[in-house]
Structure formats: structure tokens, C-alpha cells
Amino acid sequence: xxxxxxxxxxxxxxxxxxxxxxxxxxxxxxxxxxxxxxxxxxxxxxxxxxxxxxxxxxxxxxxxxxxxxxxxxxxxxxxxxxxxxxxxxxxxxxxxxxxxxxxxxxxxxxxxxxxxxxxxxxxxxxxxxxxxxxxxxxxxxxxxxxxxxxxxxxxxxxxxxxxxxxxxxxxxxxxxxxxxxxxxxxxxxxxxxxxxxxxxxxxxxxxxxxxxxxxxxxxxxxxxxxxxxxxxxxxxxxxxxxxxxxxxxxxxxxxxxxxxxxxxxxxxxxxxxxxxxxxxxxxxxxxxx
Length: 289
Ligand SMILES: NC(=O)c1ccc[n+]([C@@H]2O[C@H](COP(=O)([O-])OP(=O)(O)OC[C@H]3O[C@@H](n4cnc5c(N)ncnc54)[C@H](O)[C@@H]3O)[C@@H](O)[C@H]2O)c1
Description:
Layout lengths: L1 E2 L5 E2 L2 E6 L5 H9 L4 E7 L3 H9 L5 E2 L2 H6 L5 E4 L6 H10 L3 E4 L7 H14 L3 E3 L12 E7 L5 E7 L10 E5 L2 E5 L9 E5 L6 E2 L13 H8 L10 H20 L20 H4 L3 E2 L2 E2 L1
Parallel strand pairs: 3-4, 3-6, 4-5, 6-7, 7-8
Antiparallel strand pairs: 1-2, 9-10, 11-12, 12-13, 13-14, 15-16
Bound molecules: nicotinamide-adenine-dinucleotide (NAD).
The site of nicotinamide-adenine-dinucleotide has 19 residues, from loops.
């Protein structure tokens, strides 16, 4: 029990982090500032790396991966290891009755992803995953494709490690009445511009929703804030759908045919415009923990 930044008593959610490489730095920055969570355990194949992270976190103990997965003082396992280990660690955590939140992708194959969701449903625990995603591991470095959505809208996508730069927005939405130019989702709150059919240029739009100053780790905070019995926004079902789209694109290309997507995901509710001080506190949407 501690004092939240807003003054009330809170019981922070206890995290164990597996994998302390490049991506962990941004997570540690977000999570160390939050009253909603306390990092109680860290593990990495490189024990010296784990030790150096724990040295900066008085609340955290260095553990082996097996110890972290079994530890009583861990409520949620944050999985920041490389993709090949995602499924094994998620399944290990779920088997110990722990919640899981992992970096993208949910797993390397759709079959692995399905097994994670099935195990989580059986165990009654939450699974979440960073939703912004790219094609994992050993794959083609330039992928293009056309996605047909349920609504009939079409997305034309280009994903490339081989292009140095582009002058387009990472995401553009075209309609007969206007075009939206959406900023890089990797920066979480990049500005969005709208150019209506009869405008001469794009105009910036004021944000109407979202976690202000959100950064890596905000999906996990959202999962912890989500009322019980409600799906968190960056949930495993959404991550499985993303994995399905990724795998199906590759199948369509290699088999030279259209491939139907077999999974579906509900569009998450938009986030009410939430100031940083609020999401850093241990408050469920609408009620204190
Ligand atoms: N690098 C980026 O810019 C970036 C951005 C967003 C997301 N991601 C995602 O974050 C995840 C991690 O990427 P990264 O760039 O931090 O990788 P990294 O190689 O820098 O770090 C991964 C860490 O996990 C450890 N590890 C691997 N397998 C393990 C296991 N079985 N048990 C314990 N520790 C293990 C490694 O020793 C290493 O320290 C990936 O899923 C990646 O897709 C990376």
C-alpha cells in the first residue's frame, strides 16, 4: 500500500519483466513513474543486464525466468523478450495463473497465438500485447498487399525495411469528402491532419481522445486500469487478429491467391482524453483500485 500522486492509498499492481533489451528502456521509464504498478522482479538470459536494471529499481529482485514465472510477488508478466520466446513465456506465465502483457508480435505463428489465447481463457487470466506490429523474424523485407475489410473499405499496405524514407504519412485515410493524414503510431500522439475536398491544405485536428503523453507501456497500464470482466483495449484477441493478417498476407503472396482471414476482433472503445497525471495513478476507469 502506498500514497498515489493524487493523494489516496493504492495497492500497486506487481510486475515481473522478462527481457531487458532495447525496448525495455521506454517501458521502464513509463512504469517506474506510475503509481499503478511496482516492478518486483526482472529476468534476462543475460544476468548482468538484469542486475544492472535491478540496481536502478529498489523494488525489483533479479530472478531466473522460471523463478519470475512462479513468483508470488508477480501479478503480471511483462514479456519484452525476442519474438521466438513470446509463446513459451506467455504459456509459462499463464500456467502459473499470471496475467501477461507482451511486446509485439503476440507469437511467431497464428497457431502459437491461438494456443496462448486458449490457455488464458481456460485459466481466466488476461493477455495483452502491444498492438503496433511488423512482420516478425526471418521474412521478406518488403511486403505489399491489399486488405478488404468487413465494411468493404480497402487498405493498401506497404511495409519495408528496404526503403530509406517516404514523403507520405505512415497512415492515410482517403474518402470522397476528405483525406486524413495520421502521424506515426510508434510515437503514440503524433498529430493528425484533415484536408476536406474543397480545402487547399491540411489542417491539424485537436485530439479528442487518448492517453496524453502516452508511450511504450501505456497498453499495459490500460490493461491494469480496465474494469474486471471488461476486455482491455490492447487485448490478446486483437493481437491474434493482427498475427492472422500478417500470416495471411504472406500466404496470399506465396500461394498467389486471395486468403480469407479467420479471426475477428472488436474495435476497442476509444480512450477518453486522459491527462498523464491521471493514467499514472492506480485508478480503474471510473473507480479507484
Ligand atoms: N527494438 C525496437 O525498436 C522495438 C520496438 C518496439 C517493439 N519491439 C519488440 O520488443 C521485443 C524485444 O525487442 P528488443 O529490440 O528489445 O530486443 P533485444 O534483443 O534488444 O532484447 C531482448 C532481450 O530479451 C532477452 N531474452 C531473449 N529471450 C529470453 C528468454 N527466453 N528469457 C529471458 N530473457 C530473454 C535477451 O537476452 C535480451 O536482453 C520484440 O518482441 C520486438 O518486436 C522492439
